[in-house]
Design brief:
By secondary structure, the protein is mainly alpha-helical. 64% of the residues lie in helices and 6% in strands. It is built from 23 helices and seven strands. A seven-stranded mixed beta sheet has the order 1-7-6-2-5-3-4, with helices on both faces. β3, α20 and β4 form a beta-alpha-beta unit. α7 packs antiparallel against α8. It is globular, with a radius of gyration of 28 Å. The protein starts with a helix and ends in an 11-residue tail after the last helix.
Length: 635
């Protein structure tokens, strides 16, 4: 189901409206407050005081995520989530009423207390907001759902920021209070229609100590490597976005020479592009959690952010007034603004390709009973990275950097950080290869993906048709798999490095290297006990004639060592392709042609660890539709 189709459903639309109005009101209140305090509506504020107000407001809004995320995650796991949402949105009405008192009395302390409470409101809403999606959406709708949430969040930030400026410009406390309370009431009414989402850990004992529980949350995130590193990726995105948005006024004034209208335009372009990118991401993912677009998004973010440094900006006269959008576009430097707009749009679009699959991955791979606490830990990491973004940016300016130099540094840092995260999770690169194949040469189709267990060790057995079987299976599995591969691949310099990064397991026949074989079985047992997926090709070699070779008994020994479920799988459509041994036993000769060949993977029913090699061979034979090799007796 597409993003816009979801917005027409009862199980998603009320939730979407609730979270949209919450994000909108956060920014509406914060910007109205900051604008009034900065421009001295509440008191005669000096430049230094105004600067401190802006910094302090950001800190006050983030502080509750450090203090209350641990409790919020526990509550969202222990109790029914739609009730939590309604309670939080009801509290928002009273919080905004307190803010109204602050506006009427021109009381800075009351306004800051209100801002702190709004941060608390968001800290408690966040874990319920993201952990409820897998309960209301089907597996193949998670990407579309997250795309809609990210699209709505950034549009809400944009509209709330603009709306806050308009309300502050009115200088009317009555109008401001009506706006913020009105939005809070609408958010509560929307929450009344959010469907029930039963508690996932009703027996959980709450720990109210924020320090010990936060440490417990960090340990919880480390249980699954892909989840933890995806949290790091998401947190880095918030670092990147925080720097980019915070420096937009400086960039506009000191690099472009534009006025407030130019800064607003660039902010609007970025926010709208995030929404456009979320929609594109959902289309490119084809309803799947497509991690292959994540490296593409990261690379493009750096390219277009770096391009902001390469633009030949106009020389600004000392003390010259900022140029408006209309004057800029009508003047000799129109191309500079158009190029800047294009770069900001591309950063926004590719940011969505980076962030949306990561959110979906966390939701899909987190255990249901701990999902809200994982989201809470993600919120803490996000807050840490956003604080770090402010501190590091301040340090860069202290070193004498200009705004465009800071943006260039950000682009380089993005490449380094994302490259590091991707080496920790080679699955991103594997998925990228799959995505390229599926977008250029082949059409990929999967059937029965949901049969692969979401958690725990298991063994996948599959027919061996080509040199890219492991890539195709990686997409079908949806969990990182440890592939058992011929040890000779690990003797090839570049290929060896890649397979070691992918944590493949080298194995050799007893007659070639008995020690290597024993070591492989020990590693397989360890991976299975650690709860990972191991994939083997029991034929032991790629088919030479498109027929199924006999299965070797090694699978039985693996199951004897570690009793885990077995999932039979079959690949169809790759025989005769560029990567198969169709050419007299040779593969990959010449240049692959974009034939759009249909490649399908069928997943069979989960089998107990008592299954025998002969039974598995028969099942894979039927799933694949292949013939048995002529020299193999029928089972």
């Amino acid at each position: 189901m597409s993003t816009f189709s979801l917005l027409r459903t009862r199980r998603f639309l009320p939730f979407f409206c609730t979270q949209f109005l919450g994000a909108f009101n956060d920014n509406l209140f914060k910007n109205a407050m900051v604008m009034l305090l900065t421009f001295g509506a509440a008191h005669g504020a000096s430049e230094a005081e105004s600067g401190m107000v802006i910094i302090l407001a950001g800190g006050v809004l983030i502080l509750p995520f450090f203090l209350f995320s641990s409790a919020a995650g526990q509550i969202a796991d222990k109790y029914e989530k739609s009730q939590i949402m309604r309670a939080v949105k009801l509290a928002e009405i009273f919080i905004m009423a307190l803010g109204g008192v602050g506006f009427f009395l021109h009381s800075t302390p009351i306004l800051f207390v209100t801002l702190f409470l709004m941060g608390t409101h968001s800290a408690f809403f966040g874990p319920a907001k993201y952990s409820v999606l897998p309960q209301h959406l089907k597996e193949n709708e998670l990407v579309a759902g997250n795309a809609a949430v990210e699209m709505g969040t950034f549009l809400a930030i944009l509209l709330g920021t603009l709306g806050g400026g308009i309300l502050a410009g009115s200088r009317s406390p009555g109008l401001i209070v009506t706006g913020i309370i009105g939005v809070a009431v609408l958010g509560y009414l929307a929450s009344r229609f959010v469907p029930l989402a039963p508690a996932t850990a009703p027996d959980l004992k709450l720990n109210w100590n924020p320090f010990t529980e936060t440490m417990a949350l960090f340990k919880l995130t480390r249980q699954k490597e892909s989840v933890f590193n995806s949290i790091l990726g998401i947190s880095w995105f918030w670092y990147f976005g925080a720097v980019l948005l915070a420096e937009m006024p400086n960039f506009t004034k000191h690099a472009l020479g534009g006025d407030e209208s130019v800064a607003t335009l660039l902010l609007a372009v970025f926010s709208v592009s995030i929404g456009v990118g979320a929609f594109i991401c959902e289309r490119l993912s084809r309803g799947d959690i497509e991690l292959g677009v994540v490296p593409l998004g990261a690379l493009a973010m750096s390219v277009f952010c770096g391009d902001l440094f390469l633009i030949n900006y106009p020389t600004l006269a000392e003390g010259a007034a900022g140029v408006s959008v209309s004057a800029y576009l009508a003047g000799p430097n129109a191309f500079v603004l158009w190029r800047t707009i294009f770069d900001m749009a591309m950063i926004g679009i590719f940011s969505s390709l980076f962030i949306v699959p990561l959110y979906a991955l966390i939701q899909f791979r987190s255990d249901e009973a701990t999902r809200s606490r994982i989201i809470a830990a993600n919120n803490v990491f996000n807050a840490v990275f956003m604080v770090a973004s402010a501190l590091i940016t301040m340090a860069l300016f202290k070193l004498g950097m200009s705004t465009i130099q800071v943006l260039l540094t950000l682009a380089v840092m993005n490449l380094v950080v994302c490259g590091y995260v991707f080496t920790l999770i080679p699955e991103f690169f594997l998925r990228f290869g799959i995505w390229i194949l599926a977008s250029t040469i082949y059409r990929l189709k999967y059937e029965g993906q949901e049969k692969v267990p979401k958690n725990g060790g298991c063994i996948i057995v599959c027919n061996h048709v080509s040199f890219i079987d492991w890539l195709i299976i990686t997409a079908a599995c949806r969990r990182p798999a440890r592939f058992v591969m011929d040890h000779n691949y690990f003797k090839m310099p570049i290929i060896s490095l890649f397979f070691r990064m992918a944590k493949a397991i080298p194995i050799a026949p007893s007659k070639e290297d008995p020690k290597a074989k024993e070591k492989a079985f020990e590693r397989i047992a360890w991976e299975l006990r650690d709860g990972n997926v191991v994939c083997i090709f029991p034929e032991g070699r790629i088919t030479q004639d498109g027929k199924l070779n006999p299965f070797k008994p090694g699978i039985e020994r693996m199951l004897a060592d570690t009793a885990v479920p077995v999932i039979p799988m079959a690949i169809k459509g790759l025989w005769g392709s560029f990567f198969s041994r169709r050419n007299r036993g040779h593969a990959m000769r010449g240049v692959p042609k974009p034939t759009r060949r249909l490649i399908s993977v069928t997943v069979g029913e989960v089998l107990p660890p008592t299954v025998k090699a002969a039974e598995l061979e028969e099942l894979v034979l039927r799933l694949s539709g292949m013939e048995r090799a002529s020299n193999v007796p029928a089972a």
